[in-house]
Write a structure and sequence with these properties.
- This protein has helices at 12-24, 38-48, 56-62, 77-86, 101-114, 128-138, 158-161, 171-174, 184-194, 284-299, 311-326, and strands at residues 3-8, 28-34, 51-53, 67-70, 90-94, 118-121, 145-154, 197-205, 216-223, 228-235, 246-250, 253-257, 263-266, 274-276, 330-331.
- It has 334 residues and is an alpha/beta fold.
- Strands 14-13-12-11-7-10-9-8-15 form a 9-stranded mixed sheet. It has a 6-stranded parallel sheet with strand order 3-2-1-4-5-6.
């Protein structure tokens, strides 16, 4: 069965999603490209053969589709997702669900009433290396985990931060800065491996003056198990050296996740580390995400996680913001 899709929000991430659908070979066809910026909608329309529309309401009236990928700025998630769900569409909503917990709860309530498939597009849930590490931990490859580090340092890519007024530089539109936006991809793996975060302490920095939200966040996360891990995120201003994306230290060794897509195990066998599994890569996570969404819509399969699970990253980011103000540990559940 071919799933007919509306692409709502036709910026850079929409193209990443369409690339993943193509790589996965899924029978998903875009029939509507929706964006108030005509040039953005027309680029998706030319790529896919979809009709171009300036609003979701216009697309619902002028095209036929069963599902919507919603990839609009964060502050628009609630009105656009609500409109799509109330129109009876299956929805894959880009993370975060919304910029406040209350808005998230409202969206989730509408989704439950709609009875259609609603998923939050946190692709890190499907990241191959994250699964490899999960399996190594389950096998006791490094003994008991002592601590861990998650680190994401990245430049302001033109496709995502370009133009005269990038919405990601607007605190209200983004809901904050790197912690609430890109940081969620580096928080989700920690939750997959270690469970729920209980409290955080954080410091924020603003090395990019044009960005209203924080462009630097350094935090410690204490999990309900008592484990403490660090979280570092920065939108860089210059060149950076290669370093592991994740480092997990245990009583019997260490595991790293490299930007190259390799998981390395340091267990004393080889001082250079041993590559484990196949070479993965961050972008491969999008393919599995779309397979999950397609299976949920077409075959009624349960998604890997319920949409409520995505509240975890938002709660962590909001607690970091509170901690930066109070200079104290802050509960994630406040």
């Amino acid at each position: 069965m071919t799933l007919s899709l509306a692409v709502v929000g036709c910026g850079a991430i929409a193209h990443w999603h369409l690339d993943a659908i193509d790589r996965a070979g899924l029978p998903i066809a875009a029939s509507a490209a929706v964006d108030p910026v005509t040039a953005n909608a027309e680029r998706i329309a030319q790529r896919t053969g979809a009709g171009a529309f300036s609003s979701l309401a216009e697309a619902v009236s002028g095209a036929q589709f069963d599902a919507a990928l919603i990839a609009v700025p964060h502050h628009l998630h609630e009105p656009v997702a609500t409109q799509a769900l109330e129109a009876g569409l299956h929805v894959l909503l880009e993370k975060p669900i919304a910029t406040t917990v209350d808005a998230c709860e409202r969206i989730l309530g509408v989704a439950r009433s709609a009875g259609t498939v609603f998923m939050v597009a946190e692709n890190a849930q499907y990241w191959p290396e994250i699964h490899t590490v999960r399996d190594l931990l389950a096998d006791g490859a490094i003994g008991d985990v002592v601590t861990a580090r998650s680190a994401t340092f990245f430049p302001a890519l033109g496709d995502f931060y370009g133009g005269e007024r990038p919405w990601r530089f607007d605190r209200q539109a983004a809901g904050g800065g790197v912690a609430v936006d890109t940081g969620s991809h580096w928080l989700r793996p920690l939750r997959v491996w270690f469970g729920e975060v209980d409290e955080v302490v954080a410091s924020l920095g603003y090395p990019r003056p044009e960005m209203q939200g924080e462009s630097l966040c350094r935090a410690l996360l204490r999990f309900e198990s008592g484990l403490v891990a660090s979280f570092d995120a920065m939108l860089t201003t210059g060149a950076i050296a290669p370093q592991p994306l994740f480092t997990l230290t245990g009583t019997a060794g260490e595991i790293t996740v490299e930007g190259s897509g390799w998981v390395k195990l340091y267990d004393g066998t080889d001082w250079k580390g041993t590559k484990v599994g196949e070479q993965g890569g961050y972008l491969r996570s999008y393919e599995a995400e779309w397979r999950d969404f397609y299976g949920a819509v077409v075959h009624g399969a349960a998604p890997a996680v319920p949409p409520e699970y995505a509240l975890g990253e938002l709660r962590c980011a909001l607690a970091m913001y509170r901690s930066a103000e109070t200079k104290r540990w802050e509960s994630v559940w406040t």
